[in-house]
Amino acid sequence: MRVALMVTCVNDAMFPGTGQAVVRLLRRLGVDVDFPQAQTCCGQPMVNTGYLDEAVPAVRSFVRAFEGYDAVVTPSGSCAGSARHQHQLVAARSGDAGLAAAVAETSPRTHELSEFLVDVLGVTDVGAYFPHSVTYHPTCHSLRMLGVGDRPRQLLEKVRGLQLLDLPKAEECCGFGGTFALKNSDTSVAMGTDKARHVRETGAEVLVAGDNSCLMHIGGMLDRGRAGVRVMHLAEILASTEDDSPGGRGSRAATVTRPGGPS
């Protein structure tokens, strides 16, 4: 199986460790992973703001970059949701039959990481080790647009050493929402404050989610409140092994990390 990593703009620019974790994890599971250098933005920011026509070049670049792969895997429910659902809207509006046909090929083959592991590979135990207490935030697009359900929890429950704690009102949005956080900042901050409070209530050492954009938002709230709770992407936890722990041969997970690197 030839698999392409869609790393996403946010991860490429700010959290490269997440993409690296996806590659380590998938290769450990025997998957042949490529990183197409031609990939750019999936076009979601334009679509979410109502600029569907302006999203056409981004969608065209996407299908060109990822054509020919058996699957496209991304550590983002948000960007996977854009590729699976929004690209069809953009292509239909463009009136370009060729683009619509290309989107019809790439969209169904695009998977959020937990979907790919559980549904495509049929794996829930990825051989991970992470001796910390963790609580999980289901991000809006992964929960509502993609319907990933409990797949991330299935994976976390099989991580050795990990204590998974329930997050109160987990299904409530964190308030980030991309441009929403800029255009409706007061509401965004209020929602993020509520989410951070619920995270603190769990007593967990680490908050995990499948989108770094949400973790960045909630993590900022936790930092400002000096909560002492770290945030990590799901991929980074699943990529961790005993070799990464203190005393192991590696050092990637020797300290709990923020998305993309140690803190």
Automatic annotation (TrEMBL):
Signal peptide: none annotated. Residues 240-263 are annotated as: Disordered. Pfam families: CCG. Residues 3-80, 134-218 form the Cysteine-rich domain. Coiled coil: none annotated. This is Fe-S oxidoreductase.
